[in-house]
Records
---
Amino acid sequence: MTALLTAHGVTKMFAGITALDDVSIEVGDGEIVGLIGPNGAGKTTFFNCLLGLLKLDAGSVRFEGRELSGIPTHKRARLGIARTFQRIELFTGMTPREHFLVAERVRNGRGALWKDVLFLGRPTSAEKERAQKMLDLLGLAPVGDRSVESLSHGVGRLVEIGRALMTQPKLVLLDEPSSGLDRHETEELAETLRGVQREQGVAILLVEHDVDLVRNLVERVYVLDFGTLIASGPTSSVFADSAVRRAYLGDLV
Ligand SMILES: Nc1ncnc2c1ncn2[C@@H]1O[C@H](COP(=O)(O)OP(=O)(O)OP(=O)(O)O)[C@@H](O)[C@H]1O
Ligand SMILES: [Mg+2]
């Protein structure tokens, strides 16, 4: 396995509280890896460290062998790291297609600011084609021209994921994509993500509370608790680990 992302000894303190303590994680090219743990374990903090939104107190993050310290967030995005947010953040009044067109334009470096690109009308045929392909890939074509606020939570999640994928990342960080989704929507999400990984070869680091989704989608998983990695390995053996079951998964597994 080629390591795409290697985080080594990542440590982050907030006002004397250790939110992450010596966390080391690897994600291979095109791999789907899970990161699980209870509320407040440090999962979102870890994402923010990978993205350069937070400065590490110790440790290092390498992407395709390149040390990322000192590289600002927008440049990390250009290197191929994309993310979605724990709470959906979409532009009201815009359609899924428009979200994708804006992301495409930003990727191409046309339109310096989001507010510019919003009013840029007339996308090129290549841009339109890429947006259409993303709508098709995510099964969003039937709702591509509806305003996002008229769509369900589950569809909103897919729009967020599509927007992240439009930047053609090598790695996408998904922060609890199933939150707010019902069981059926969650199953569809798993199916869609599998398709995305198959078609685009993109690696996914998935933060999730939904045990079924993790089990369905992920071969390898890391378990964080109070900022410390307490288990890692193949999903089936981690979920079988009695300490993990007792402490974090309760009756769910
Ligand atoms: N900007 C911040 N300032 C101070 N403390 C913070 C900050 N961000 C996170 N923390 C603390 O760091 C710890 C880890 O929080 P984090 O949000 O990373 O957890 P999480 O695993 O994502 O939890 P959840 O499952 O609820 O999303 C928590 O104790 C949180 O209160
Ligand atoms: Mg979080």
Note: The chain has a mean pLDDT of 89.
---
Amino acid sequence: MIDEARRLAPRFAARAAATDRDGSFPVDDFADLRDAGLFGLMVPARLGGAGAGFADYAEVAYELARGNGATALVFNMHASVTGALGGISDTLADALGLPPEAMAARDEHLKAAAAGSWYAVAMSERGVGSRLSKLTTSYQRVDDGYRITGSKTFCSGAGHADAYLVAARSASDPTQVSQFLVPAGDGMRVEETWDALGMRATGSHDLHIDVTVPESALLGGLEGLALVAVQLAPHWMVASYAAVYVGVARAAVDAAVAHVNERGLGHLPAVRARIGRADAAVSAAHLAVREAARRVDEAPGEVETNRWVWRAKLLAGTTAAEVAASMLEAAGTSAMRRGHPLERLYRDARAGSLQPATSDVCADWLGTDALGGDPDSDGVAPRW
Ligand SMILES: Cc1cc2nc3c(=O)[nH]c(=O)nc-3n(C[C@H](O)[C@H](O)[C@H](O)COP(=O)(O)OP(=O)(O)OC[C@H]3O[C@@H](n4cnc5c(N)ncnc54)[C@H](O)[C@@H]3O)c2cc1C
């Protein structure tokens, strides 16, 4: 799968300028991902997938992002849904008391992914961001399942995904935040609002929801699992973007090297030093992402693993923005023209620190921890 991602990256890179310019969804990239079987990356082998771990995912995301960060970011949403679902072991299911019907439904969602379906994440809301504890989208029990109503924003891949992971709050018990997998179609209306500075091809539009779903759509089969899922698998919520932004940063270095060689600027010491510093910074951030990913696979949930997860997100986000800015400066004004790869990469890289957990929130988490506090509960505001 990593080789497949490497094979696809140049194809994505060739299409990236057009989808960025138009703010259109990279439909052809997604057809390539489907054909390569990548929608089954995180699906266990017994259900027809590749059975990848988090470290494998991180390598795939890095390679895809070297081609097109926007494509890799949308793919990350699908990988997060399938990775979190596939990560529920029988032992964990027993410990949480998940009903067998919910595990059967989970297997069906994963089999569908291995067969070529892909899932988007509809969590964020206007004025709330991704803070699960503040969501206003609500659900209530009805005879044949659940009725969900509300509006989401920043939903990458809206209008193209086969189903959406929707986070919503119980109308009867607002302390319960649950997650549903809702098929695209009636009751899921996309409003095309995404016209952003960077990651323009992610199609992160608003989604208006008024839908009734069967009981099997409630992930885990129990209400109130959304915050539990963040605690059990913080790597998907916090650090899965990290590999994407390190890939974007590496693409910026590659684009600068190509530009500098083409323009014959390599003899300038300041240009050479910028490229040298950028290479070191991207390599260091990549190592941090790999270390976090290795620990997630080997020692999930351990205190030191979680520290690396937050470090990786912080380093990837800040490194991408700093490196892309420096590479633009090394390349000069001609790289600022629309259509030049560095112009797009500079804007795409800017989004890394802003995606939750934002760089400021990551730094606060790590600082609170270093000072002996409880980083999950001692923030100035709830983390989620
Ligand atoms: C390219 C892109 C694609 C995205 N795709 C998706 C998607 O597919 N699905 C989805 O659901 N969302 C998606 N998002 C949205 C994203 O996950 C966040 O929900 C969103 O960026 C939060 O926006 P916000 O404007 O409310 O800012 P916030 O994240 O709320 O940040 C506002 C400010 O508050 C600070 N802050 C936030 N939380 C805390 C805290 N706990 N303590 C202290 N300070 C805090 C931040 O550092 C920042 O300075 C995407 C975002 C981007 C940029």
Note: Residues 12 and 28 are 8 Å apart (CA to CA).
---
Amino acid sequence: MGIDFSQIAGRYERYSSVQKSAADILLGLLEIKDADDVLDLGCGAGNLTRKIKAMTKGRVVGIDPSEGMIKEAMGKNKDTNITFELKNAEEINYSDSFDVIFSNSAFQWFRDPKKTIERCYTALRKGGRIGIQAPAKKIYSPNFIEAVEKVEQDARTKSIFAHFRSPWFFMETPDEYGRLFEDKGFKVAFSKIECIKTNYTPGEVFQIFSSGAIAGYLNQDCYDTKINENYTDTFKKIVKDAFVKQANDEGKVELVFNRIFLIAVK
Ligand SMILES: C[S@@+](CC[C@H](N)C(=O)[O-])C[C@H]1O[C@@H](n2cnc3c(N)ncnc32)[C@H](O)[C@@H]1O
């Protein structure tokens, strides 16, 4: 009875505005050339993979472990020659195959980031570059954390929420992220945590929450007890109400996100 990315896939492209705008910054930093072969790691519904394909005549491959996401990506990109593959980032097995690896809003989900970085190093050609954008710091979004704290405290949800185990990987500083890549042989060309603030209505903030974070907070695999429909419905209601309370007099919530932007070169 949980929610994972397969359930989100159909509405992902519509709801993922924060991932999209962060991706534009990452694409600006990566400067994809028109013959680059590119791997999109954690490609989701493939909307950014399509954007990348429009930048290069080279080979473009998207990988993601969510069946629903890969199905959506294949369905929406039939007329492009992008290859989509169902796999975890940890499982890639390419050697000297790509000029660029792009990974947007997915790194925090990787179960074994060190192994993934090692595999990425092998997958890239010499001089190839990897660009990562992902939520960073334990307080990756104070708005989301505050809303989920309400779930943690609410009598209707607190006993089940006590069984939640975060699936995410966050580091606190750009140097810590940089060292992960240097340890596997990369030279870090750019590493910065940006605090991005954007105004949205509470409803939009809930949609944004529903395009990513919910696939962890309401995923059965992240609980060591059974979660049921009553719990997921109440969880959503508490979080929605919390976003309404975060709105200012103009009815807008200032949504804050800490994001790591990192470029490393082989
Ligand atoms: C928020 S979506 C981002 C999708 C896309 N890159 C974008 O920015 O729109 C996160 C994606 O990471 C994928 N993901 C989760 N664990 C992963 C792993 N171990 N390896 C690769 N991708 C993973 C999820 O299935 C999901 O599609």
Note: Residues 5, 16, 19, 23, 41-44, 48, 64-66, 69, 88-90, 104-106, 109-111, 212 surround S-adenosylmethionine (CB under 6 Å).
